[in-house]
Specification:
heterodimer; A: seven-stranded mixed β-sheet; four-stranded antiparallel β-sheet; globular; B: four-stranded antiparallel β-sheet
Amino acid sequence: DSGVTQTPKHLITATGQRVTLRCSPRSGDLSVYWYQQSLDQGLQFLIQYYNGEERAKGNILERFSAQQFPDLHSELNLSSLELGDSALYLCASSTPRDTQYFGPGTRLTVL
Amino acid sequence: AQSVTQLDSQVPVFEEAPVELRCNYSSSVSVYLFWYVQYPNQGLQLLLKYLSGSTLVESINGFEAEFNKSQTSFHLRKPSVHISDTAEYFCAAERDTGRRALTFGSGTRLQVQP
């Protein structure tokens, strides 16, 4: 158990819908990272937050957005969902100079 | 730009045999290197990492990896595998520039057969 929690574990929805994925970092970690893991594109970095502020952006679509709240949990919002958005969404957390530790992920299926 | 290449998508091996999973990286700056393991329906678990110092790093469950700067490689090895080592293994790199996003390889599926 890495100490990073993600909810829900599974999510099934329809095209065009909007969903919110939640991540709680390990105690004391200020940084949160979101990654997408799909069969087509492998593991891709989406976005990083540090203590509530966006720190780095990767291959994140404009339909996707994220934020980190004062209690340091983070949410990833996915809107206008397409079939190709089906993937495992992984959250990781770290201290400033430490390794990233990953949560179990949220498996999103878009039908 | 930075990239990570895992040369083998699948590696079948018999139990108690040695194994090597290959990883090469390209980067114009210094990098930190990692191996993560993913068991079915789970997230990524850190196996081992190279940040600096000794080029040979070891995990608690018998895996080791050697950082080779001249060959830009970070291959993962284990002298004797177990059935329980069956999983997907990902090599990852992080640039030593303050940007902490990990760049992952495409993964290698290790299949240990009895």
